[in-house]
Amino acid sequence: MFEEILLTVMDPLLRAKYEQFMAELIGHRKAKIEALSAKEKLLALQWMRCDGQILTPALAKEIEEVLNDEGVEFLKQHKVFTPDVWTQLFDKATEVAPAFFRLMRRTTERIRMGNLRGRQDLLVDVDMANIVDGSTGLFMYIRNLDVTPRTVVLRMQSPDFRPSDLALTFHLPAGEAESLLGSAVPVSGEGDEDVIGSLVRLLQLGTTSWQSLLPNRYGEATVTVRLENEDGDLLLGQQINTRVRSGTKKRLRRTGVVVSATLGVLGVVASVILQVNRLLSL
After folding, report:
1. 263 domain residue, yes or no
2. Which helix or strand (DSSP H or E) is residue 203 part of?
3. Lowest mean pLDDT among 25-34, 79-88, 271-280
4. pLDDT, mean of residues 84-91
5. Following CA atoms 155, 160, 161, 164 in sequence, which dihedral angle do they give, to the nearest 10 degrees?
6. Domain residues for 39?
């Protein structure tokens, strides 16, 4: 999911460079690590660095668990995907999908504190932007904790967004009949028994749904999220309140910033011209 969101904020040229970069980087993973796990962990690490959740020494240690020496050096020396570029990409991605990163931040905190537990044999979390400008995304994470596979229906209903009534069916594989991570874990540690390893494992074993919603009107809005079994019985339910804001205000703010910057530049240029004229008149 990290990659899917990052790709939405890349232009075609940068996307092509990213795909080439990632293919070569994953080629340097250690022998026992799967390609998908390596990619998820490396991207999650970059996000945690940008979000201030992991310090540089721990970051380097975690990267060394995934990549061989050549891969570590390749990542450090890459001229395009530098730490500054990763920060810019995740900043843009957070603007596009704030709910997803808030959900991820909440998940890492619960893992760290050891209080990530399910209800109705399901681990579920839902999030959506508090303030909506134009289209928005509703994110939902689901993981089956039952020892047998199960089918659930995610139903989203709202008079304030389109689609107003949507039902998605998920076939969840068998999970584990346990309360997850009953004790606190460090952000970084040996192997995968830490926050970053647990987060990557959750993303791989669970299902993440990203549904785009278009507002029908401005002002206060609500979305009702229901998780049902195949018979329509309610398993879990939640109502999300948000505010839909006119995109005109956002455009006006941007225009104001541009105008202010332009006036500032013109002021500097005028000052330089006046000083040059004074010097020439001497």
Report:
1. yes
2. helix 195-205
3. 271-280
4. 94
5. 40
6. 2-96
Q: What is the 3-state secondary structure (H, E, C) of 97-138?
A: CHHHHHHHHHHHHHHHHCCCCCECCEEEEEEECCEEECCEEE
Q: Which two tokens stand for residue 256?
A: 């104001």
The answer to whether position 110 is within a domain reads no
Cis ω on the peptide bond leading into residue 163 (within 30° of 0)?
yes
Same domain, 84 and 32: yes
CA 254 to chain centre: 24
- Residue 273 token pair: 């011209």
- Output the CA–CA distances (angstroms, integers) from residue 48 to 2, 101, 116, 210, in the order listed: 11, 10, 19, 21
pLDDT of residue 249: 47
Helices (H) and strands (E) in the chain, counts: 9, 9
Give the type of residue at 100.
Answer: F
The token pair at 160 is 């304030």
Using CB atoms within 10 Å of the CB of residue 225, give its burial: 0 to 12 exposed, 13 to 18 middle, 19+ buried.
buried
What residue type is 238 in one-letter code?
Q
Residue closest to 240 by CA, chosen among 166, 165, 158, 167: 158
Give per-residue pLDDT as tens, 150-161: 899 999 998 888
- The answer to whether 158 touches 221, Cβ cutoff 8 Å, is yes
Residue 102 lies in a domain: no
Per-residue confidence band for 123, with pLDDT thresholds at 50, 70 and 90: confident
∠81-82-85 over CA atoms, to 5°?
75
Query: Hey, what are 172's tokens?
Result: 């969840």
Residues 193 and 282 in one domain: no
Q: Cα–Cα distance between 80 and 99 in angstroms, integer?
A: 28
pLDDT for position 248: 41
For residues 56 and 128, state if they share a domain: no
Pair of tokens at residue 108: 């890492």
d(CA 265, CA 237): 54
